[in-house]
Amino acid sequence: MKSLANSIFILILTLLFSHTRIINLPSVAAITSMKPGDELNHSQVLDSEGGKFKLGFFSISQTNNYYLGIWYAGDPQDKKLWIANPNTPLLNNSGLLTIDTTGTLKITSGGKTVVNITPPLLTRSSIARLQGSGILVLQDETQNRTLWQSFDHPTDTLFPGMKLGYNLTTKQNWTLTSWLSSYIPASGAFTLSLESIQGAFQLVIRRRGEVYWISGAWRNQSFPLLTALHDSSNRYQYNLNLVSEKDDVFFQFDAPDGSFPSLELNFNGAIVGGGEDSRVYALYNEFCYGYESHDGCVSNQLPECRKDGDKFKQKSGDFIDRSTTNSYDNASTSLGDCMKRCWEHCSCVGFTTTSNGTGCIIWNGNGEFQVDESGNTVKKYVLVSSKSSNGKQKKWIWIVIVVAIVVPMLISGFICYSIVRRRKLQAEKRREEEYIRELTASDSFNDTNMKEKDGREVQDLKIFSFGFALAATSNFSSENKLGEGGFGPVYKGKFPDGREVAVKRLSRTSGQGLVEFKNELILIAKVQHTNLVRVLGCCIHEDEKMLIY
Fold this sequence. Notes:
Blueprint: H1 2-23, E1 33-34, E2 39-40, E3 45-47, E4 53-60, E5 65-72, E6 80-83, E7 95-99, E8 105-109, E9 112-116, E10 126-130, E11 136-140, E12 145-149, E13 157-158, E14 164-167, E15 173-174, E16 176-179, E17 187-197, E18 200-207, E19 210-214, E20 239-244, E21 248-254, E22 263-265, E23 271-273, E24 280-282, E25 310-320, E26 323-328, H2 335-344, E27 348-352, E28 360-365, E29 368-371, E30 379-385, H3 387-441, H4 443-447, E31 462-463, H5 466-472, E32 481-485, E33 488-494, E34 500-505, H6 514-526, E35 537-541, E36 544-548
Parallel strand pairs: 31-35
Antiparallel strand pairs: 1-10, 2-7, 3-4, 4-5, 5-6, 7-8, 8-9, 10-11, 11-12, 13-22, 14-15, 14-21, 16-17, 17-18, 18-19, 20-21, 22-23, 23-24, 25-29, 25-30, 26-28, 27-28, 27-30, 32-33, 33-34, 34-36, 35-36
């Protein structure tokens, strides 16, 4: 009985042991290279030297399309660093990676070529490898030379060892191109390149060929607007490098191992860290509007209907009442294209893309946007005016109010001043005429114009105009000045008939009034002596008095 029990126990152990071996079948040996005739299907991967990178087929669940790409082994974010067929997706998992008899690395499906990754190289000794740096290379095994490499054909991501720049001899450009949307790797609206601007190297983001964002000139081993890549608060500490050689000019970086480092130009034109680092390093505000240049956005002339501070904010809800909807179902249109379309059309108040991130849905009109607090409604980008914009509006309103008040006051003040001045001039003119009337009406003054009984002419006093005095003395020029006494300067003058005269210009501060001036004039006119000059007359202009000899 005991022997039977032992036999049964041994049988059970044998069955369990056999079952365990069946479950843990040895895994398929890792593929590290491919030769002509070899194939890689959707369930296989090509491992890099050292096992840090993998190449294989993957799908995007939102579209069910398949692509061939490279990624970090063990990256929790599963970020794809390079894609062989971004613009030519596979519609199912039947794709194969192979090298044909001409040495061409290609993707096939159902026996047909979907995309040639490399041109025909006309060699039967080509071999494909994924190097330890993450580069997919096609080499001539017999001559030990590289025929083609993936680093010369970057997609949307830069990782250590890759170049961003250009070759002066071959005209090769290493430029990143954004995805069309977060689900579609096809070429999007944005590119990132290294360019020389006014003799300085800068990273430049372009939207459909137009400069959209610039990093600032390279200095001190960094770009001014990308210093966050290696500042003390960044745990990844990217080391940036700019190389300018005889033929090559390029930017590249490296970072500590184990961090899955990469820099991605995302579908919205932002530079984002990859792997465990998901920080945004450029375009923090999602869009560039043309009025903000402090964060690298390029300044552009605003549409007439837009102002500083206007922007789009993503909100959950719907437009109500007076809004109309227009759809642009273009599979090559991205979110950035929709933003540009809405920003430049004055009637546009909001936009979004279709479910896969392409095409545009545009809202026009003056309809109110009703926010869905639950967040269940599809989010839309809604045009709003920021506080700074409202502040500027209020500022302009106050400026208009102040101008509307001050300008009429200034005009009224000027009119009042003109009236007062005109009246003052008229009063002075009347006073001058009164002076002259009083002077000429004086009996003593009239007596000086009479002849004496013996027939000698005593005097013939005249009232001269101020213009006459100016003309006679050449505008009282310093060259005609004879001297200056206690009551004012004396000028030499000449009448039109050639007679030389002297003009005594009484000082305005002499304190002499009309009565004193009249008495002096009559007294001098009556005194006759061979040693005294004759007084010919006088001139009265405003509050100024002159004697002419």
